[in-house]
Amino acid sequence: MTLRWKGGTLQQKLKIVLFSLTPVLALVLVAQFLAFLTIHRATIEHGTDPVTGLSYYSMSIGHWPWSHVNTTPLNSLGLPGDELVNVLPKGQCKHVVFAGDSFTFGDGVDWEDSYFMRLSRLSARRNPDRCIRFFNVAERMTTIEQQLDRVRETWHLIEPDAIVLGQYQNDLSDLTNPGSIGHQENVGAVQHDNQWGNVLRRVVPGYDISLIRFLTYRVFAALIRNDVAYDTPLGTWSVLESGRESGQADRLKAFYRDFYEEIVEEVRSRDAEFAAVIFPSKLDLLAQRYPEGEFYRQLAGEFEVPHISMYSVLDSVRAGYPYHMYDGHLNEYGNAVVAVRLVEWLFDDSPAPLPTLREP
User: Fold this and answer.
1) CATH number of the domain to which 339 belongs
2) Looking at the domain assignment, is residue 260 inside a domain?
3) Is 6 exposed, middle or buried (0-12, 13-18, 19+ CB in 10 A)?
4) Angle of helix 10-39 relative to helix 210-225, nearest 10 degrees?
5) What is the pTM assigned to this prediction?
6) For the chain, what is the domain count?
7) Cβ contact 101:171 at 8 Å
8) DSSP helix/strand/coil, 307
9) CA distances for 38 relative to 33, 220, 334, 356, angstroms
10) Domain residues for 309?
11) Which one is predicted more confidently, 65 or 14?
12) Residue 168 — very low, low, confident or very high, per pLDDT cuts 50/70/90?
């Protein structure tokens, strides 16, 4: 039987529509399956290598055959890198400790590709006749409250000459996490949610569908690459941009400032130097504004802390896209860009952020 639209019955017209949509539906199903394989993300926080018995952290992005798996070795303190033993006495060596959250930890890339390890190698090549050692005491999903504890916990093991604090966009809102000083147990208290996926759920209808998520990430990446500002998500991501939480923002800024003052004064009281590195999120690049970064810069000015913001550095290479497509952390390219700029800052810029590294 030949189906004709003109003069056909309603049943015949429905058959024509369904027949016409069949290849479209097939393509959508294939695209949905491919998107599902691509955007998957999973972490193992404390795995154990069956051969060496050593602990590691691992993140995988995507299902096979598009999966990318990265690992970071963990020492007995749960910190990235080697055990903090046999580094003392340090003699003429200079010890620089990096503290921070997942950005400084190196989440999203293999340990050797993190900006911290790249910085260590670049420094060694640049200073072949000097002993400058870098240590990483960063911990994922923490803010300055826990990071100060890590600095204190490891001080006697390292005896640092300088502490460099890595500051990320969510350090303020993370003070509301359970166990942190800003957490509120009372019913109705607003806990700020800074998870990238949850932000997109509020912004994008149907976000939990893999294909929608895939397209959303790709659209946002295209906007970033092409220097197109899109400010809407920032109010749902930044605790400083949400007008309904202005009281909480002031409260969290006060908490953060107290911890910042405490770590600066404590480090200086031990005759060590202190500096800060400020990292933006991909949403800050997308909005072309970084309100938390401005707050961190104000703190640095108030306490005369040498600091560098990576906003302009990452903004200048946005066409190359320095972030992971389906994760908020820096990719290998972004880590390499940051490492190069940090070496220039530490060893070339004037005034020297850490004078101890310029001494012969």
Assistant:
1) 3.40.50.1110
2) yes
3) exposed
4) 60
5) 0.91
6) 1
7) yes
8) strand
9) 9, 16, 20, 46
10) 91-357
11) 65
12) very high
